[in-house]
């Protein structure tokens, strides 16, 4: 029996809230059980993967991201879950033992400094025991930082401030164990989105969720890695989508809808003109101003009809 898993990290642009809307846009071949390979080139919080794996039987799954600590965290959950849970429990115990916010804040910044120092020396492509502690800190910081946001500066340093949360579940043991079960047999890869192209064939479904094109100069939270994802990157991704289509594979792609703020901005309508472009409504969950967290349109591009 398959288990339902919640994303164990909060991620900017996470798709949990959109899953009910996505259901009507998945390809019929997937719903009929005819697709046996699933690929995500931008893994992030993994909401779509966790949802699909709970419903469909894939023979092969490849999950990729350019963010090293993200892939390390998934790997540790997949392969070293008991050690991870033990360390997370300890971090949670210490954090909750502090009664005043200043002590909690000091602990947060100590862990953030250690996390950033680890980033300077860790090899994200070769396993070491340090991965366990790095993954635990990744989860700890995500649970205790401001708005559950992941962001890097130009030097690749994690720079999100403290979230001032008095009570928080840092170690959700049951969900982490369910995530381990969901990741059984999954291939995790680290790299640019194009690196997964070698795995794609005509029996593949690919969900593409890149860093979103910002709707304004002040709404950019696209720095998941120190390599920026700009308009040139979006254009390169669109060309890659065409190559997926040429292989006979099926894809679904999400992005922001520029027409929310400028009706004349047809950036994605022009980029994906040969494909099907749908629009869905999403809540803007990550915004420093609570009164600006409302419903906005997002685009959903597919190379197949509903």
From TrEMBL:
TM region positions: none
Annotated GO MF terms: S-adenosyl-L-methionine binding; sequence-specific DNA binding; site-specific DNA-methyltransferase (adenine-specific) activity
Keywords of the record: Methyltransferase, S-adenosyl-L-methionine, Transferase
UniProt-listed Enzyme Commission number(s): 2.1.1.72
GO terms classed as biological process: DNA restriction-modification system; methylation; mismatch repair
PROSITE patterns: N6_MTASE
InterPro entries, per database record: Ade_MeTrfase_dom_2, DNA_methylase_N6_adenine_CS, M_m6A_EcoRV, MeTrfase_D12, SAM-dependent_MTases_sf
UniProt key word S-adenosyl-L-methionine: yes
Binding of S-adenosyl-L-methionine, residues: 11, 15, 65, 209
Name of one Pfam family that matches: MethyltransfD12
Root EC class: transferase
Signal peptide: none
Catalyses which reaction(s): a 2'-deoxyadenosine in DNA + S-adenosyl-L-methionine = an N(6)-methyl-2'-deoxyadenosine in DNA + S-adenosyl-L-homocysteine + H(+)
Family: Belongs to the N(4)/N(6)-methyltransferase family.
The name this protein goes by in its record: Site-specific DNA-methyltransferase (adenine-specific)
The organism of origin for this protein: Clostridium acetireducens DSM 10703
